[in-house]
Amino acid sequence: MKKKIAILRGINVSGQKKILMADLKVLFEEMGFINVITYIQSGNIIFSSKIDDDLECASIIEGGIKKQYSFEVPTIVISRDELNKAIDNNPYSKDIESSLDKIYLTFLKESPTKERVENLQGDFGGDEFEVIGKNIFVKYAEKYSKSKLTNNFFESKLKVPATTRNWKTTLKLQELSK
Length: 178
Fold this sequence. Notes:
Layout: E1 2-8, H1 21-30, E2 34-39, E3 44-49, H2 54-69, E4 75-79, H3 80-88, H4 96-99, E5 103-108, H5 114-118, E6 128-132, E7 135-139, H6 151-158, E8 162-166, H7 167-176
Antiparallel strand pairs: 1-3, 1-4, 2-3, 5-7, 5-8, 6-7
Helix pairs in contact: 3-7
């Protein structure tokens, strides 16, 4: 059994795509996953699976949610090792103490092409980012909600599904997946 983390995009936001975490936990168990733990209402699930392939796990989860709730929820699944590697590779780790609330991690379903990454240019008002594999590390000058560097921006430019978590949540997912 491998420890994995499912990161759902766009649930329980402004009353849209409402899914109670207790119900989601039961649904994951019904889909055959074990040791299921949910964390906060934004759709973070730690679980164990016999399935090695993260894209296959994501497809099963997306299908189960679609069947149960009649709406689509993009899902990114990563291994515990992949999460640990992302945390270790944070180019803004030296700024964590002074800017913890301004550092975010955008998870990508797959690695974007080099050409698309090279085309990520523009004036981002002091916001900084770095793409490393299937992750985008972002350091906001102010607030996430005031930035151009959103999930929609990255998805439209990179043509890859994305979902973002703040650094505190990312570290909590690491802690819960031990």
